[in-house]
Design a protein that fits this description.
- With 865 residues, this protein is an alpha+beta fold.
- Helix content is 66%, strand content 7%.
- It has 27 helices and 10 strands.
- The strands form 3 sheets. Strands 2-3-1-4 form a 4-stranded antiparallel beta sheet, with helices on both faces. It has a 4-stranded antiparallel beta sheet with strand order 7-8-6-9, sandwiched between helices. Strands 5-10 form a two-stranded parallel ribbon.
Length: 865
């Protein structure tokens, strides 16, 4: 590996402009494709095979009018009084403007809906009065029939007596005729009464069904009690997140002027206001801090610009390719944000390691071209393998079986892979062009150089001792190694405690910053109409097949049956029928819980609804499925939890194998993994405390603590594992290299630490700064990920890799490098430390003169001639 990278670095340095031109061309191509064929991103989360997806697809097939997504606009009067007629007219004018917005199917008028609800109540009252009249008529008819039946029975008794006592009585024929007619009239009356009775029972059943449905729907209203707040529902032809941002922006643009002029203040839900900008103030501040750290570490603004250039180029190519790929697949909004975070962080770090090694080589008197090639061969080897662990951890998200995670993992992995390629090709090209300016004049003078361009002077400095960094610290942690280990484990264990109460979900309006339009809309709906209105559940009832469409009365009866069952569930505030399929075999209901979508009680309510649905299916053959954002949150969280163990086994297994090959040890990879588990626990604990509990929330822009993003645990584990192995690679590879050059195991711990402490610390601070910038992102889904990664990286680099690992390695001594002989023979020798490379260079086996002493560089150092 080191030999290949040596040749690659030397070639890139010798062909600087050609290398930079090739990457510029690649960037231009992917940028053009992204701008021309790329499609808008979506924040819709779709997981095929889940129950809510199946029910949603069924709803779209059977009742298309009910399948579109909704955005909400909360209207309030400026003076807090009920809407006036003039304000209602202005509101309806805004409705007309919104209906002309692309992708808007319809606008639900809250005042009209309120009037329809009042009219329905009036009709029920009228029906009840009519039903009472009909019941009285049936009762009167029954009484009259009973009286007529009694008279007929008395006449029949008289006729029978006459026939027995005086058979020849001449009045008998007339009496018989009279009784016959009376019997016929009684039978006709009984039939008429039976028909009336049946009609009355049907009417009574319809009334009871209607009353049941009306009573279950009474808790749902779009206008509050005093008439000062109204909720407008805007239905789209697709899910709201898939509607282009520019079309959703037309809603406030067209509505605000009309509404505000009438004294009406609108607040728009997150489905309407969500923006998809990737770079904001937080990200810019994070990059600025990273640049400052680079300047402090490298001592030169020119040198500090190289890692940023590498990172931006890698991110540009990676994200450009991802955006171009949207022509083939739909991409989620979080996907580029994750790739951007990682691409910037690792791109800066990877280039920094190569630049730092090159600077050290120059200060040791190595010729320019040789220094660049050696830096790429040694530090570049660590970069390649560190990047490989990150790529494996990200690409393995495909194994989760969840499309959005697979998408995020593949795009981020590709961006990291590009960052590695850019680091080992662009870095040497730019370093060659920078010449000696990679080290500031002050840095050259501090190292004892008067003319850094003089090869003879650089040769005199060959073998100069390198400045040590962190020797006092590694001495401190290894002086009492057991105390260090116990202290680190105890501290990280305490930080991990909040993780036990971690709750997961997907962000909604309640996660938006206080004072924002989306949060105000969310909180106002919860206060005025109940928290469950922010997360209604859609229940789709599939009825037994019918030979012909059912009558309205039959449909109402079945709706009432479903409503009766669902309203008996604790935690259900209301059940509202809102759709019937053309064949009357599918019914749709809106179920409003008494608790909010992020509340723990809502999960219990949904579980009880599913239990009630099972009872309904067994008794009536009606199958009820649930969908909606609240249901999706729970199903997605459960699905991710189930996918996590397989993911961990694959990622950890492959990365352990890589570390085993690199370090030729069984113990070192296990130590690295154990430290990683401590890092993950602490990162989860800190994120839970800040983003869920609200601790120090004002410091990190967390104004509305709540459940953490469902995808956060698996993403955090994947990314942190890769980055943790980065620091393990960069720090322990120095220890491995020192040991390979003859030092004993415990001395090698110190040597490797002081060799890499400065650059690893700088890399950790840079990566933390970049991630912390994303912790203040305007994208709610990105904030907890950015915060968790920032905390995780800082803890892993400073506490685990630079404190715990040296202590453990010092305790283990030679045992840390144990590897069975049979396994040593099976594993390939990758020569990460460059020992074989040095032998080949000394022998001239690489095709140029043997490298034994500093040599002039005729291309870059004309003054030496």
């Amino acid at each position: 590996m080191s030999t290949f990278l040596y040749r690659l670095g030397r070639w890139a340095a010798n062909h600087s402009w050609r290398t930079l031109g090739a990457w510029a061309l690649i960037l231009a191509v992917v940028g053009t494709l992204a701008a021309t064929v790329g499609r808008p991103l979506t924040s819709q989360v779709s997981i095929p095979g889940t129950g809510f997806e199946r029910v949603l697809a069924q709803l779209g097939d059977e009742i298309p009018d009910a399948a579109g997504g909704f955005g909400r606009v909360v209207l309030t009067t400026e003076d807090g009084r009920p809407f006036t007629d003039a304000q209602k007219d202005a509101v309806r004018e805004a409705f007309a403007a919104w209906e002309d917005v692309p992708h808007v199917e319809r606008v639900v008028d809250p005042f009209e809906a309120q009037q329809q609800q009042a009219d329905g109540t009036a009709r029920l009252d009228e029906a009840r009065a009519q039903l009472d009249d009909a019941g009285q008529q049936v009762a009167d008819g029954t009484q009259q029939l009973n009286e007529a039946r009694a008279q007929l029975e008395g006449g029949e008794a008289l006729l029978e007596q006459l026939r027995r006592d005086t058979p020849e009585d001449p009045s008998i024929p007339a009496l018989e005729q009279q009784l016959s007619e009376g019997r016929a009239q009684l039978e006709a009356g009984e039939q008429e009464l039976a028909a009336g009775q049946e009609q009355y029972e049907q009417g009574r059943q319809q009334y009871l069904d209607g009353a049941t449905v009306a009573d279950a729907s009474s808790g749902v209203s779009l206008v509050n009690g005093d008439g000062s707040v109204a909720v407008v529902q805007i239905q789209f032809d697709d899910n709201a997140q898939s509607v282009p941002t520019e079309d959703r922006n037309l809603i406030p643009e067209r509505g605000d002027p009309v509404l505000e002029a009438a004294g009406v203040t609108p607040y728009y839900s997150v489905e309407i206001t969500q923006q998809l900008e990737f770079i904001g103030p937080g990200e810019i501040i994070g990059l600025s801090v990273a640049l400052l750290v680079l300047v402090l570490v490298l001592g030169s603004l020119v040198a500090a610009g190289l890692p940023l250039l590498v990172a931006l180029l890698g991110v540009g190519v990676g994200l450009g390719g991802a955006m171009a790929f949207t022509a083939v697949v739909e991409m989620n909004t979080t996907t580029p944000a994750l790739a951007l975070m990682l691409g910037l962080a690792v791109g800066i770090d990877y280039s920094l390691f190569i630049v730092n090694r090159h600077r050290a080589n120059l200060l040791h008197g190595m010729p320019m071209l040789e220094s660049i090639a050696r830096a790429v061969a040694t530090a570049g080897s660590a970069v390649v393998f560190a990047g490989t662990t990150v790529v494996i951890a990200l690409a393995a998200l495909v194994l989760s079986g969840i499309p959005i995670l697979a998408e995020m993992g593949v795009v981020a992995a590709a961006t990291v892979a590009v960052a590695v390629l850019v680091a080992v090709t662009v870095s040497p090209a730019v370093l060659r062009l920078m010449r000696t300016r990679v080290i500031s004049r002050r840095g050259w003078r501090a190292a004892g150089f008067t003319d850094p361009g003089d090869d003879e002077e650089r040769a005199r400095h060959a073998g100069d001792a390198e400045e040590e960094h962190g020797g006092w610290f590694v001495g401190l942690v290894t002086r009492r190694p057991w105390l260090t280990v116990l202290g680190v484990v105890a501290v990280l264990g305490v930080v991990s405690i909040p993780a036990a109460s971690m709750r997961l979900g997907l962000p909604d309006g309640g996660s938006e910053p206080t004072g924002s339009s989306a949060y105000t809309a969310y909180s106002t709906i919860g206060e005025e109409f109940g928290p469950g209105m922010n997360g209604p559940v859609v229940a789709v009832a599939e009825l037994p097949e019918a030979d012909a469409p059912r009558s309205d009365a039959d449909v109402l009866d079945l709706q009432a049956e479903v409503v009766r069952v669902l309203t008996q569930v604790d935690g259900v505030a209301s059940v509202v029928p809102f759709g019937v399929s053309d064949d009357t075999n599918t019914l749709a209901f809106q179920v409003v819980p008494t608790t909010g979508p992020a509340d723990v009680e809502t999960r219990e309510t949904l579980s009880e609804i599913q239990t009630a649905a099972g009872v309904l299916e067994r008794h009536s053959g009606i199958e009820v499925g649930l969908t909606g954002q609240t249901v999706a949150n729970i199903e997605i969280s459960d699905r991710l939890a189930a996918a996590l163990p397989t993911y961990l086994v694959v990622v950890v297994g492959l990365s352990l194998l890589i570390l085993m090959v690199v370090f030729r040890s069984l113990v070192v990879p296990l130590v690295a993994t154990g430290g990683f588990l401590l890092t993950v626990g602490a990162a989860f604990g800190a994120t839970t405390a800040v983003h869920q509990w609200g601790w120090l929330g004002s410091w990190f822009g967390v104004t509305q603590p709540g459940p953490l993003l469902s995808f956060m645990p698996i993403i955090l584990i994947g990314v942190l594992f890769g980055l943790a192995m980065d620091y393990q690679m960069f720090l322990v590879s120095g220890m491995h290299e020192a040991r390979a050059h003859g030092e004993d195991s415990r001395t090698a711990v110190r040597s490797g630490f002081v060799h890499g402490a400065k650059v690893v610390t700088a890399a950790a601070v840079i990566m933390t700064s970049v991630f912390l910038g994303f912790a203040y992102s305007h994208l709610v889904m990105v904030r907890p990920i950015g915060f968790g990664l920032a905390v995780g990286v800082l803890i892993d680099a400073v506490v685990v890799r630079m404190t715990l690992t040296p202590a453990v390695m010092h305790l283990l001594g030679d045992r840390a490098w144990y590897l069975p002989r049979w396994l040593d023979r099976l594993l390939p020798d990758l020569d990460v430390e460059g020992l074989k490379l040095s032998e080949r260079l000394a022998s001239g086996a690489l095709g140029h003169a043997p490298v034994r002493a500093p040599e002039p560089d005729p291309v870059e150092e004309p003054a030496a001639r």
